[in-house]
Amino acid sequence: MDLNTQNNQQNAAPVSAPANKDDEIDLLEVLGILLKHKIFLLFCIIVGCGIGFLASNWQRPQYTSDALLQIDVKGNKAGKAMGEMGALLDVASPAEAEIELLKSRMVLSFVVEQENLCYNAFPKGALDRLTHKEGRMDLENLQIPEIAITEKWMAKVIDDSTYVIITPEETELAKGVIGKELVAPYGGDTLAIHVKHMRARPGQLFVLVQTDPLDAVRGLVKQLNVAEKGKQTGIIGVSFTHQYPDRAAAILNSIANIYLRQNVEMRSAEAEKTLEFLEQQLPGVKAKLDSAEKRLADYRHKIGSVDMSGETRAHLEKTAGLERQILELEQQRQQATRLFKEEHPSVQTIVKQQGRLRAELSKLKNSAEKMPLTQQEVLRLQEEVAVNNAQYTSMLNNIQQLRVVRAGEVGNVRVVDYAQIERRPSKPNKKMIFLGCVFGSFLLGALLIYLLQMTKRGVRSSLEIERETGVSVYAKIPESDNNILSRRKKGKNTLPLVEESPDDPASEAFRSLYTAIDFSIGEQKVVMVTGMVPGVGKSFVSKNLSALYAANGKRVLLIDADMRRGVVYSKHRQGLGDVLSGKASLDSVVSESLVKNMFTLGAGNSEVAPSELLRGDVFRNLIEEAKTKFDMIVVDTPPLNLVTDSELIFPVVDFALFVLHYGRHSMEQIKESMVKVDRCGDKPHAFVMNHVEHDGRGYGYGYGGYGYYGGYGKYGYSSKKKKK
User: Fold this and answer.
1) 161: three-class secondary structure by DSSP
2) Which helix (H) or strand (E) element contains residue 598?
3) Closest alpha carbon to 621 in 613, 610, 609
4) How many CB atoms lie within 10 A of CB 714?
5) Per-residue pLDDT tens for 111-121?
6) What are the DSSP E strand ranges found in 316-451?
7) pLDDT (tens digit per residue) in 382-427
8) Between the CA atoms of 383, 384, 387 and 391, what dihedral angle is there, to the nearest 10 degrees?
9) Is 414 helix (H, G, I), strand (E, B) or coil?
10) Does the predicted model carry a pTM greater than 0.70?
């Protein structure tokens, strides 16, 4: 029974076992991966510290002021009755409407104009910003010429009270003084600027910006934080954040005062409009009264004194009363028409009352026609005077009442707390920014490591390989930090790892591999070492395996059968290619190595394709000759999946060892390679896993990669001869 049959029988039982979930990473594996890349993570943390320091100091200090307003909710009985149930039923609070009014352009446009928020001077200088030594310049006015309003204008500080304007062409335009408006011609237009306050060192630059009022209002809305305190309380909290604490308090107090004033004006607007109308009509009514009194006096002077009877006096008083009532109803009708249409019942009721009074007045006038003409004329003139006097007196009374109402009108909003100047900045939180940058850099580094690890999500379990293929895995060779590998890349003739670092974990793994192979092949002499793809470390395995055989007293020959890219060191320029071509003999090209009893046969030179040299009996005869001179022969072959050389060598050897890169190959690739091997013959073979990484459950730390091929695209045959 051969080795592979035994392996199939041994592995038949655990086939039904649940598959190992290699695509999952547990906590120990994650910790192991991070620990392996601790130097990179430390570098990320140091970078994060630098970024955190710069970010925390780059942020300008911001100061937050707050104010408190109260809304009168006495009239909102429904809201009080609902209580907390109103909040559950989404009953609107009166404070919500006031909050929207508080953030409206009707209020904030006046604030922008009053606080000069359209005119800004921003300090310039990265170093000053990092060290928090920026100056300050407050503008009362700034009018940039329309031709260059989008260009970059700057002001440069000369001394404590003088500055100079720098045009977009970087030329000095004019010098200005604090507190005085500077006007200078530019491009057929005029630049006007008024600096109200300045505190900066000489040479400090400020970028001048004239903002559109609408944009300034929108920016102010974004910075305002307005919300009701609690549910249905009518208490509104307003907060505002600014770079300068005094500006934050001033802007917030301006918002509160303007909103309060507009609230009062809105509630007294109706009385104001009525008062304005009456004051406009009052001079005309007074003129009509004076004219009527003059006509009555002139008539009496003309005809002398006229004695009025009691009937006439009563008639006059009744007529005057009716005229006064009609006038009052007319005023009520005018007020009602401002709120309702003419068809409204309230307006129609007043019109009907006026019609009834006018009918009674008409009857009185008809009865007056029976009096003597002199009394009729006096009665008419006196009625005219009485009517005008009543109208004038009523209008004066209404004006006085409206003035009292306007003077005593209060809004439904009052300021509970005005904004105060804060002494401590509210942000940035430097500690949180610093820790956030450090933690973010660590997470970014860990994410990069994880993504890199995800690119190596091939097969990692030896049990899975044995279960799926029926071929044993003889050893798992961990990665090593030994510097012999870096020296070997430079083409130096160095000792194998098992000789230079016998205590290395990888050396222990090679001894286990040697033991397993020794039990498998018995008295057989030829072992073939190959890989599926370049870069798996087959030459590394070949050299160390040969060194272990030599250390046990056997004469070992290491043959580099990779005639395209040979890597096995040899003192002779000629090698396997020359022997197979008939240009040299075996004894003339075999070279001694640094290890006792270990000899090497380099790849040599070949003018024809290596696969043509390996066909036929020439290579088989070479192996037979080598068997008579050496106790053990190790053949390092090219990658199995790239060229046919390994398939041609496989029937000649006694045992084949396939080197797998840990976590790189998929199970489908491994199975396809085994199908290709089975077509070449029935020879014992096994796997060895190289580059095994520490995952929290195993051992070994990285070589850093030691493949010679450098990728698929670089592997190929070259017909150029090497220089002798």
Assistant:
1) coil
2) strand 598-601
3) 613
4) 10
5) 999 999 999 99
6) 413-417
7) 777 777 787 788 778 777 766 665 555 556 788 889 999 999 999 8
8) -170
9) strand
10) no
